[in-house]
Amino acid sequence: MNSAWIRSSLNHFDWQQFGTAALNSILYIVIILVISRVAYWLIIYLLQRTLLDHKGKKILDERKANTMFSLLRSMSFYLITFTAILHTLKHIFNFDTGTLLASASVLGVALGFGSQSLVKDIIGGFFILFEDQFSVGDYIQTGQFAGVVEETGIRATHLRDWGGELHIIPNGSITAVTNFSRGKMRALVDILVPYDEDLDRAMKVMHSVCETVSTEFGDKIIDPPAVQGVIQFGERNAVLRVIGFTQPNEQWSLERELRRQIHSAFLKEGIRTPQQNIFMSDPLKRDKEKT
Fold first, then answer.
1. pTM summary value
2. Predicted confidence band at 184 (pLDDT cuts at 50, 70, 90)?
3. Cα–Cα distance between 208 and 225 in angstroms, integer?
């Protein structure tokens, strides 16, 4: 009985009309996807020309322009995706747009109570932009994560740390930020010199190195590095300190260059630096000495 009814239904089913409707729906979805993709790339192109084009007149500085571009790109993606889904559902299921939007509003309110973290992330993203806490390209630390800001989206911030790892942090969880890319940055180098060396001579050599490095770094330096003098007496060595101030993100390279050139200058002038105790570095020799 049931099999006969199924065969009768299949025989009377208008397969041609079904195929035509399915083909029309597929073509409509493809067209919507193509239009959405073209619209998205057109918006990205206009944003690039407006915010990032170095040839034209820029309305913001580079880092703020990159941040605005990142945020607007994220918002455009979500808006175009939602619009495409809305039109697709309307065509396939013949929904009324007003009814669907009203239902979506009610559903959004219902989900809002259960997804407070999402709302918190979005609000946090707007406050980060409004207060200019950091921009794309800044080196920041928030919580246990630190790195260069690659993207600031409407929901999350992307940090790339020195090891290459990408940290995706929800904006709502960013409660405190340390920004290493605002204002002048301090470069600090401590040099250990044995007590039996002439400290005045060592400081004179370090001062000469500071002048050389200041010339090499040029406009990257705000306040030239200078020898502060003896800042501490250790168990076997005196500690001499050099301090300078640089443009953002240049302090580490200045510190490395100061260490390298001070070491080379000390070797050239015959000024000794602390040597690691051989008995502490080689357990076998240390044990033999004890026996």
1. 0.54
2. confident
3. 11
